[in-house]
Amino acid sequence: MPQSRRPEGTPAGGQVTQAQRHVGALRPASWPALTYEEHPWHITAEQAHRLGAVETRRLSRPYRAALPPQIADLDVMGALERSALEAAEDAAALTREFDAAMAALPVPMPAILLRSESASSSQIENLTANAHNIAAATIGADAKENSALVAANVAAMHEALAHLGPLDLPTILSIHRALLATSQPDAAGVLRGEQVWVGASDQSPHGAAFVAPHSSLVPALMGDLQRFIERRDMPPLVHAAIAHAQFETIHPFSDGNGRTGRVLVHSMLRTSVPITSSTVPVSAGLLGDTGSYVRALTDYRDGDPGRIVTSMSLAAHDAARYGRALAQRIVETRSGWVSSIDARSDSAAWRLADHLFSQPVVNAAHVCTALDVSDRGARNAITKLVEAGVLRKAVLGRRRNVVWQADAVLAAMDDFARAAARRR
Q1: Which of 127, 184, 268, 372 could form a disulfide with 180 if both were Cys (CB 3.0 to 4.6 A apart)?
Q2: Residue 58: Cβ within 10 Å count
Q3: pLDDT averaged over the chain?
Q4: Does the pLDDT at position 337 exceed 90?
């Protein structure tokens, strides 16, 4: 039976009235925990020969797969403690304030934060790459596997946030397709048809930390999740956190579940908070305590949805703090460029300078496309910024790709990543 070799998702008007109706409850209503069902497990003749008789008998026993409850019609607000609801409301207000503050800045913070969120989300899955390599991979100048995967995560974020319609199954499939189109094209945008699990051996799900639902259940569970996402009777952070936890429990894909699930959080917040411009890099907040994040998902599966709501809310607070610090540094960087760039404010050189905040490694071809200028115009703009000390020439890899990089921007993004990775 085929299986995932590295499943992800474990690092692995009326809203206020509804909240007020339940917030005073002394004891929350129950939330259904996972149950389990047994399925046969078959190993191949080649595996049996390699494993031996004892291990073959052990792995040939039935295994227990999760059987998640359907949540589309459950009483969410009644299942939460007052503290979780208050944390979610505070986080939503902070998210709105953060969005407004970032939109008022003279630098393209939305693009910077989106890339930072994608890098943090990938790092939760132990996919690490520095800002330089991610930026180089984005323009095809770096072939390192992790860099390409993180760059794909950026593309998936763009796919999600550019979508203006409902967050339905076709949209989720398109997000996943953007994430894995290059690295795993056969699995990209396709619901899994095999059993996946987290932890234990890749030989079988026996003894795994979490065995996802049998693949035959995935379409119905995703249909139920879509109905839950369509609800509008709970605070935004509550809605996004529980949808995320249910998505991770379903594990609908053979790989990329964790990264896709965190993209969904942003897509939901963008429409329900609402967020008009900036991405709060929630994954950066989760990255500081991935153990708590894992425990929150486990508690959700055990029948306690409050912890994932609180975990996601606290992560939004931490992410906003990191994001503001990054924004301050980026603004200071641009202010320093004003005195060094000898060009008109509407020149190609300045347009390129501002573009560097969202793409801090460029080559001449990329500049031509991004600024819609000729090759000569692109190289003139690059030369201006080299003379000003904004860009530095570099040669990458065996192919000797010539690029120019904005070291100040790259350093700011790497410092953001290091700060996010530290425990609270």
Answers
A1: 184
A2: 12
A3: 87
A4: yes
- Exposure string of 308-342, with b = 16+ CB inside 10 Å and e = fewer, is bbbbbbbbbbbbbbbbeebbebbeebbeebeeebe
Lowest mean pLDDT segment, chosen from 65-69, 119-123, 371-375, 384-388: 119-123
For residue 353, what is the DSSP state?
H
Tell me the whole-structure pTM to 2 decimals.
0.86
Over residues 416-424, mean pLDDT: 77
51-89 residue pLDDT tens:
777 777 787 889 999 999 999 999 999 999 999 999 999
Q: Give the three-class secondary structure for 195.
A: strand
DSSP per residue over 231-266, as a string? --SS-HHHHHHHHHHHHHHH--SSS-HHHHHHHHHH
Reported in sequence order, the residue ranges of 245-319 that DSSP labels E, i.e. its strands, are none
Main-chain dihedrals φ then ψ at residue 35, nearest 5 degrees: -115, 180
Give the count of beta carbons closer than 10 Å to the beta carbon of residue 45.
8
Question: Which tokens go with 135?
Answer: 């930026």
User: Does the pLDDT at position 330 exceed 50?
Assistant: yes
Other Cβ atoms within 10 Å of 361 Cβ, number: 26
Tens digits of residue pLDDT in 354-371: 999 989 999 999 999 999
Beta strands in 63-102 (DSSP E): 63-67
Contact assessment for residue 356 and residue 305, using Cβ atoms and an 8 Å cutoff: no
Separation CA 195–CA 216 (nearest Å): 9
CATH placement of domain 339-421: 1.10.10.10
Q: Spell out where 248-396 has E strands.
A: 361-362, 392-396
- Within 10 Å of residue 343's Cβ, how many Cβ atoms? 18
pLDDT digits (tens, 9 = 90+) for 105-117: 888 888 888 888 8
User: Token match 């003139």: residue?
Assistant: 380
Could you tell me the residue ranges of all domains in the chain? 15-33+75-325, 339-421
Beta strands, E only, 115-188:
none
Residues in the chain: 424
Q: Identify the three-state secondary structure at position 189.
A: coil
> Cα–chain-centroid distance for residue 126?
13
Express each pLDDT in 315-328 by its tens digit.
999 988 889 999 99
What is the CATH superfamily name and number for domain 15-33+75-325? Answer: Fido-like domain (1.10.3290.10)
Take residue 372 and report the two structure tokens written for it: 């819609």
